[in-house]
Design goal:
The protein is α/β, with parallel strands linked by helices. The chain has helices at residues 52-60, 99-109, 114-127, 143-156, 173-190, 201-207, 241-259, and strands at 8-21, 24-37, 41-45, 67-72, 75-76, 84-87, 161-165, 193-197, 210-214, 221-226. Pfam families: ABC_tran.
Length: 260
């Protein structure tokens, strides 16, 4: 069972989740015990419909467990909070606002004084390589650029935790690789904690400090695999024998889980 320590940031303690449907109750998650430490990146993989996004939504505070408890910094999660930001698969930029105005939106809504965030806008525009596109509208950007706006907008609100639901899924392979590297660099510099949902085993091994493999529904945690690589990673790592060994190991577990 997961236990709380001074390093634990997120704790799921014996979490179960049921949903009522016209055909009766469906149990999606069973007895999930998971801890995520401060600054840790945890990738979750598993069969479609097994409840990966449900876990993320409970940590976000959008859903409550049917039993068990989700806590952050020792406090029960009962609603969304400024310490958490969600980045979805589909970009959620506001099409009627420029890139800069998209980044300004969160701090303004939160009522923060301009002096607290104005300089951060240019900082994050530079970090996500969008400085020269600051006054463009989303329709003028590529899919990868819009996803960078999403991530920069998440960062501008200074969350402790990033919750990412297949954010790079729709992107082409080359753009995805660039985005993966950019995400690692940003989170390493600012020591963010990440829960990252993906179907891509290679992506999970490249991004994660740990990879969690879920069973089919009603889902439990099948495996919790520690990834031994340093936090500063380059895409060339994907060609290394140890990387390929881990990818094949997790892929084998994943395929076995899907067939159960």
């Amino acid at each position: 069972m997961s236990t709380l320590s001074s390093e634990n940031l997120i704790l799921l303690n014996n979490v179960c989740k049921d949903f009522d449907t016209p055909k009766g109750k469906i149990t999606v998650l069973q007895h999930i015990n998971l801890t995520v430490n401060k600054g840790e990146k945890v990738c979750i993989v598993g069969p479609s419909g097994c409840g990966k996004t449900t876990i993320l939504n409970m940590i976000a505070g959008f859903l409550q467990p049917s039993s068990g408890e989700v806590s952050i910094n020792g406090k029960k999660v009962v609603k969304p909070g400024p310490d958490r930001t969600v980045v979805f698969q589909k970009d959620s930029v506001f099409p009627w606002l420029t890139v800069r105005k998209n980044l300004e939106y969160g701090p303004k809504v939160r009522g923060l004084p301009r002096s607290e965030w104005e300089s951060k806008i240019d900082f994050y525009l530079e970090k996500v390589k969008l400085t020269e596109f600051a006054d463009r509208y989303p329709k003028e950007l590529s899919g990868g650029m819009r996803k960078r706006v999403d991530i920069a907008r998440a960062y501008i609100n200074s969350p402790e935790i990033l919750l990412m639901d297949e954010p790079f899924g729709p992107l082409d392979v080359m753009t995805k690789e660039v985005m993966q590297k950019d995400l690692l660099d940003l989170t390493r510099e600012e020591n963010k904690s990440i829960i990252f949902i993906t179907h891509d085993i290679e992506e999970a091994v490249f991004l994660g400090d740990r990879v969690i493999v879920m069973t089919a529904r009603p889902a439990k945690i099948h495996s919790d695999i520690k990834i031994p690589f340093p936090k500063d990673r380059d895409p060339s790592l994907k060609m290394e024998p140890e990387f390929q060994r881990l990818r094949k190991q997790i892929d084998g577990i994943f395929k076995g889980v899907e067939q159960e």
